[in-house]
Specification:
alpha/beta; 12 strands; 45% helix; binds guanosine-5'-diphosphate; binds magnesium ion
Amino acid sequence: MSTIVALSTPPGRGAIAVVRLSGPDALSITKQLAVDLDNVKARRATLSKINLPGTQETLDEVLITFFKAPDSATGEDVIEISCHGSPVIVREMLDLTVSMGARLAAPGEFTLRALTNRKINLVQAEAIRDLIAAQTEAAVKQAARQIGGELSHTITSLEEELIGVIVLLESAVEFVEDDLPAAELGSVKARLTSVQKGIGDLADSYSSGRLLQSGIKVAIIGSPNVGKSSLFNRLVSRDRAIVTDVPGTTRDTLSETIDLEGVPVFLTDTAGLRDTTDTIESLGIERTQRAIVDADLVLEVIDASDAVGEQVSRDRDASSIRVLNKCDLAVANRFVSEKDSVRISALTGEGIESLRTAILAFLHRGDVDNEGLLVTNARHYDLLKTASYELGNAISALNDELSEELILVSLHNALKFLGQITGETTTEDILSQVFATFCIGK
Ligand SMILES: Nc1nc2c(ncn2[C@@H]2O[C@H](COP(=O)(O)OP(=O)(O)O)[C@@H](O)[C@H]2O)c(=O)[nH]1
Ligand SMILES: [Mg+2]
């Protein structure tokens, strides 16, 4: 196994830069470069100097930390050299270690070695990448939970349950002349259904997980003059959009990002939806239509004081919240007993907190059954979906009393897909795809 080296801190100037080596020669290479390293102890920082070879000239005063295999991040001998954060020093350090036999690491190669040495599994490796790339507090939390192994444990216990059923069916095929007795069939069906539900719950959490990872797009829509721009200003906490009592004031869409409990919310105020002959306004309405298609969540604003006005008719679905605005005025009869809407006044600020809560509830709607553990990775989601599909096939084959062999094929497939999530049954192809998305030094 070769010894690899890379800059592990961001390139550029800084107080310090960390150059990391991993592999069997990490220590011997460092000893050739650094002075007084004979008594280096594992997991202790040692102050030392790096000398230019063949001279007594010092390149830099550094702090060296040694992690002895297998108790290191990669499972190999690891050396971390903290030097001063100058690109020139870093360049020299890399050149020196390479001249002593180290090789520049490929992207993600440190993590790949950790995976190969079973320090972490694939879910954890991906979570390390996601943690580094995280844009939101919520994404950091999810990545940390996945590095901690929560998702892997959940998947492993589903796999174990599945293996239990496979073993039962395999032995039935081997040893039993007749088919499985009805009682046993019933229990197999129940167990498979519960595994499928477990997988389904995880897959469903991706709808929230994806949004927490990247943020959520919210469009404010409704008829002219219902108070969309006023609500937009309330939510962004300043007078960003022009508010007038002239219908059709907002012609272009207008966007701002706000922070909702650590999740970035990309909020768009739109032109009121109505028939118009005004060219500019119709262009605005076209943009509104696009904003609606783009949005993860739509706030459909209605003027609660309006007794007769037309309402924008949209299909009510899970991805819209109906907002009754102007509740500081007399609420029209047709809205008095309406449920499933959030009542606010953009003018007084009343109800804005409930609206924020409703938006947050939308964000967290997928995690009801997983105690807040979310699938945030598209690759995991796809594999959960395919595993669930195979289980569905197995269950209908059971219902149709098809042969156990046939059922087993689907179950083995499901197990294979689950295994690909944690990397137990992962081909080189998948690994190289995953690690191509890492940065160097990780
Ligand atoms: N009484 C009352 N007036 C409001 C409220 N929200 C907005 N308005 C008024 O309604 C008019 C239209 O507001 P605007 O935000 O421009 O609506 P938009 O056309 O939907 O963007 C303005 O005169 C606002 O002051 C509210 O909650 N209560
Ligand atoms: Mg407006």
